[in-house]
Amino acid sequence: xxxxxxxxxxxxxxxxxxxxxxxxxxxxxxxxxxxxxxxxxxxxxxxxxxxxxxxxxxxxxxxxxxxxxxxxxxxxxxxxxxxxxxxxxxxxxxxxxxxxxxxxxxxxxxxxxxxxxxxxxxxxxxxxxxxxxxxxxxxxxxxxxxxxxxxxxxxxxxxxxxxxxxxxxxxxxxxxx
Length: 177
What we know:
The chain folds into 2 domains: 2-54, Rossmann fold (3-Layer(aba) Sandwich); 58-173, Dihydrodipicolinate Reductase, domain 2, CATH 3.30.360.10. It is built from 4 helices and 9 strands. The chain has helices spanning 10-19, 34-47, 61-69, 93-108, and strands spanning 2-3, 24-27, 51-54, 73-81, 113-121, 130-137, 142-148, 155-162, 170-173. A 6-stranded mixed sheet has the order 5-6-7-4-8-9, covered by helices on one side. Strands 1-2-3 form a 3-stranded parallel sheet, covered by helices on one side. Helix 1 (10-19) runs parallel beside helix 2. The two termini are 23 Å apart.
């Protein structure tokens, strides 16, 4: 079963599918809260069903091309700016936008996370719609994330600085959210 609905409905719909013995692919985010996500994971384990989150960008040709060139990244900076959309206000900008870049960076950096420093603010909705995070990995790589979900202009870009790429960082624009 594929669950593609507003995030607040992911948990009840996915839980019903798992209880019915169905494998489930849930669009991101897996649930609106960490508690709901953990409950779904436990339910999938109990029922023996597959529960997967659809991080579609990981399977794009763009991601494959970057993965082949990236080597060992030392610094990554990812920015997503999106216009205000009422549909996106059911969850934080972290679960709506940042999650894409987090998933991609975790797939590029083969190292455990050492520390995370993050801040988010609710400016135009009840959930955070602007956020900034810095993730440090034990191998020395640092990833910086910035998301804004209420501006009139849309933009997404990422820069990766692998070892020995002093003047040639790997850049790629992304126009889809």
